[in-house]
Design brief:
heterodimer; B: mainly beta; four-stranded antiparallel β-sheet
Chain lengths: 115, 113
């Protein structure tokens, strides 16, 4: 089946530093990647949509300068949390649509802790 | 606009008992409906989906769901749960005019002996 590989699974960083999260589609081409944020015991909130070869589309209230998204190729999308602060600590998940019958596949998530 | 409501934030159930997790949606156009399961610190795994055709959909791990258009519901059921079914369950909707999934707030299924 279609797989999205997400790395790292966990990362701890100091306040003020930047962290990059990668999502790779392993056996299909992901022209679109959705990036979600999930707070403890809450649902997934869509942050942005990346499209290969064009600028990402951010949801209302999401700072595009803080959460940099790049969709460099048909198999790689990255989310960089810049100048991270403790309030950015969260679980980040990527997801890509595969095809109408398969639906969407999700990465395994990244637990970001900013200290 | 599309939205999803999962009325039960937590559902405690004993092992081998049946369970139903409720999901209601709102949309003015035709919808695709999904149930996902999330284990701690992991991504989402697709349990089942309704795209069209038969309103009773069978998924993995013995789960099934029934699409009820008149009641705008897509409740998830399992006749006999196992301890390993303890997880967070999310209902999601996708309309034909949008490419983004809209998730419900999730239901925590807690199975105990």
């Amino acid at each position: 089946g279609a797989v999205v590989s997400q790395h790292p699974s966990r990362v701890i960083c100091k306040s003020g530093t930047s962290v990059k999260i990668e999502c790779r589609s392993l056996d299909f081409q992901a022209t679109t990647m959705f990036w979600y944020r999930q707070f403890p015991k809450q649902s997934l909130m869509l942050m942005a949509t990346s499209n290969e070869g064009s600028k990402a589309t951010y949801e209302q209230g999401v700072e595009k300068d803080k959460f940099l998204i790049n969709h460099a190729s048909l198999t790689l999308s990255t989310l960089t949390v810049t100048s991270a602060h403790p309030e950015d600590s969260s679980f980040y998940i990527c997801s890509a649509p595969v095809d109408p019958t398969y639906g969407y596949t999700f990465g395994s998530g990244t637990r970001l802790t900013v200290v | 606009a599309q939205s999803v409501t999962q009325l039960d934030s937590q559902v405690p159930v004993f092992e081998e008992a049946p369970v139903e997790l409720r999901c209601n949606y709102s949309s003015s156009v035709s919808v695709y409906l999904f149930w996902y399961v999330q284990y701690p610190n992991q991504g989402l795994q697709l349990l089942l989906k309704y795209l069209s055709g038969s309103t009773l959909v069978k998924g993995i791990n013995g789960f099934e769901a029934e699409f009820n258009k008149s009641q705008t519901s897509f409740h998830l059921r399992k006749p006999s749960v196992h301890i390993s079914d303890t997880a967070e369950y999310f209902c999601a909707v996708l309309t034909g005019t949008a490419s983004k999934l809209t998730f419900g707030t999730g239901t925590r299924l807690q199975v105990t002996l």
